[in-house]
Amino acid sequence: MTSVIMWAEIPVADYERAKTFYEAVTDSQMHKMDAGEGCKGAGFAREEESFGGACILQAPDFTPNTGGVLIYLNAGDDVEGMLKRAADAGGEVVIPRQAIGEADSGYFATFTDSEGNTIGLYGSN
Questions:
Q1: Helix (H, G, I), strand (E, B) or coil at 12
Q2: How many angstroms separate the CA atoms of 10 and 115, rounded?
Q3: Is 89 exposed, middle or buried (0-12, 13-18, 19+ CB in 10 A)?
Q4: Is residue 101 over pLDDT 90?
Q5: Could you tell me if residue 16 is inside a domain?
Q6: Do the Cβ atoms of 30 and 10 come closer than 8 Å?
Q7: Which of 27, 59, 88, 115 gets the highest tally of CB atoms within 10 A of its CB?
């Protein structure tokens, strides 16, 4: 097993608004996916050979919130840039970019998305 986490779904109330928001934040296109009857979903871009993934999902009884599991998006070497794009797209910075510990463990930040979820960013810079 290469990863404990296989898949993550971010609940959204407004599919189009959330898709536009996350495409702006990640600076990439999301791909529409078959999410079943009464549901709308779009997956985040990923390398073809990568393991697992994540999506946004609008579904009955699937409600955005700030107190659930905290998912971290890979910001690569640009945590600050991704955080700025989140704020520019209508999100709100919760925790500004900061170093993790004293060792070279990278950086993190969190923001509230267009739907009211708290989302984390992790990266090397």
A1: coil
A2: 9
A3: middle
A4: no
A5: yes
A6: no
A7: 115
Q: Which residue type sits at 57? A: L
Domain around 67: 7-123
Contact predicate 67/59, CB 8 Å: no
> What single-letter amino acid sits at 98?
Q
Q: Measured between alpha carbons, how far is 62 from 65 in angstroms, rounded to an integer? A: 10
Does residue 76 form part of some domain? Answer: yes
> How many helices and strands (H and E) does the chain possess?
2, 8
Domain count across the chain: 1
pTM of structure: 0.87
2 domain-assigned: no
Q: What is the CATH number of the domain that holds 101?
A: 3.10.180.10
Which residues on neighbouring strands pair with residue 110, listed in sequence order? 95, 120
pLDDT digits (tens, 9 = 90+) for 77-99: 999 999 999 999 999 999 999 99
User: Would you say 55 and 42 are in contact if contact means Cβ atoms under 8 Å apart?
Assistant: yes
> Which parts of 1-125 fold into alpha helices (H)?
15-26, 79-88
